[in-house]
């Protein structure tokens, strides 16, 4: 049997798409602000150029760019794109993890658990209630997701199979898939880190060069130095927003934990130990665990 994301509840799919949409919105807002700041610095560094009456067009362009930064920031704050992205991502991963635990008899839904379906719904609502207190908008209250679809037929079918089938399905479709995802994200972060690190070094060296030129000769040195400094600062800010370096370390550690757990699950875990092993694996892939590792990375 295979168990894919398509077999998860509709509530997961809605929150997952909401998280992706809000992440894109938050990222685009930050990128727009940084680009506008560099554009404002670039327009201010240009010669006076053409005029419209008594207005210098390049100066006006610089002022409009700064105004654009403020407008984008105000809109992003009102839309709460970043908090809603994080809340929806936490909700989606919580639903996904709980659904997997239920489907493969992970704790607290082991084979000897009584009323597993009721326990699942209780745990689900308790976890989502905590997110609602933090500002998460439950799509079921707005009628965007129908009530009563928290447990899918595929979840019950997988739950009804014997231990060896459940173990094989979980290791292949959850553990290995998640480990491969962390591998891909680590490689993407490594490439992005190298690109932005070298770009920042190049911009800083150019700013240093023009600063030295401005110190010993006349010319556009100071203005170009300011533009290059703004561009380097924008690169540093973008790199920090994307958190490439801490995520490399966090994803690498989680990938190693999942690889070790995969070996253990396939060799030494017994059926009685299976519920706690699944619970521990799901703890590794939780967003809270990733954030904790990223914050405490060297």
Tally of structural domains: 2
* Rg calc: 25 Å
Class by alpha and beta content: mainly alpha
| Helix fraction bin | over 70%
Task: Offer a quick outline of the entry.
This protein has helices at residues 10-45, 57-79, 81-103, 116-133, 153-159, 163-216, 221-242, 244-267, 274-284, 287-295; strands at residues 51-52, 55-56.
Structure description:
This protein has 298 residues and is mainly α. The chain folds into two domains: 1-161, no CATH class; 162-298, no CATH class. Helix content is 76%, strand content 1%. The protein is built from ten helices and two strands, in the order αββααααααααα. A two-stranded antiparallel ribbon has the order 1-2. Strand 1 (51-52) and strand 2 (55-56) form a beta hairpin. Helix 1 (10-45) packs antiparallel against helix 3. The longest helix is centred in the middle third of the chain and has 54 residues, at 163-216.
Write the layout of secondary structure elements.
Layout: H1 10-45, E1 51-52, E2 55-56, H2 57-79, H3 81-103, H4 116-133, H5 153-159, H6 163-216, H7 221-242, H8 244-267, H9 274-284, H10 287-295
Helix pairs in contact: 1-2, 1-3, 1-7, 3-4, 3-5, 6-7, 6-8, 8-9, 8-10
Label this structure with key terms.
298 residues; two-stranded antiparallel ribbon; mainly alpha
């Amino acid at each position: 049997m295979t168990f894919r994301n398509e077999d998860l509840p509709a509530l997961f799919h809605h929150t997952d798409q909401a998280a992706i949409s809000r992440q894109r919105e938050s990222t685009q807002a930050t990128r727009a602000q940084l680009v506008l700041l560099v554009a404002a610095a670039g327009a201010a560094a240009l010669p006076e150029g053409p005029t419209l009456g008594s207005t210098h067009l390049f100066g006006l362009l610089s002022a409009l760019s700064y105004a654009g930064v403020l407008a984008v920031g105000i809109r992003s704050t009102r839309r709460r794109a970043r908090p809603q992205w994080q809340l929806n991502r936490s909700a989606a991963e919580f639903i996904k993890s709980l659904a997997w635990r239920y489907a493969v008899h992970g704790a607290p839904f082991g084979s000897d658990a009584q009323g597993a379906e009721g326990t699942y719904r209780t745990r689900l609502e308790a976890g989502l209630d905590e997110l609602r207190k933090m500002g998460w908008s439950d799509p079921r209250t707005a009628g965007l997701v129908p009530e009563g679809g928290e447990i899918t037929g595929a979840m019950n079918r997988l739950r009804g199979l014997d231990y060896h089938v459940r173990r094989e399905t979980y290791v292949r479709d959850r553990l290995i898939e998640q480990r491969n995802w962390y591998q891909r994200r680590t490689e993407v972060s490594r490439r992005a880190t190298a690109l932005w690190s070298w770009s920042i070094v190049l911009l800083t060296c150019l700013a240093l060069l023009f600063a030295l030129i401005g110190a010993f000769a006349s010319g556009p040195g100071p203005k170009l130095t300011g533009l290059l400094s703004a561009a380097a600062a924008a690169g540093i800010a973008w790199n920090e927003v994307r958190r490439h370096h801490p995520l490399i370390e966090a994803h690498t550690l989680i990938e190693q934990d999942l690889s070790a757990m995969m070996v253990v699950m396939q060799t030494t875990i017994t059926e009685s130990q299976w519920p706690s092993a699944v619970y521990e694996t799901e703890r590794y892939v939780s967003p809270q665990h990733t954030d904790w590792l990223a914050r405490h990375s060297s």
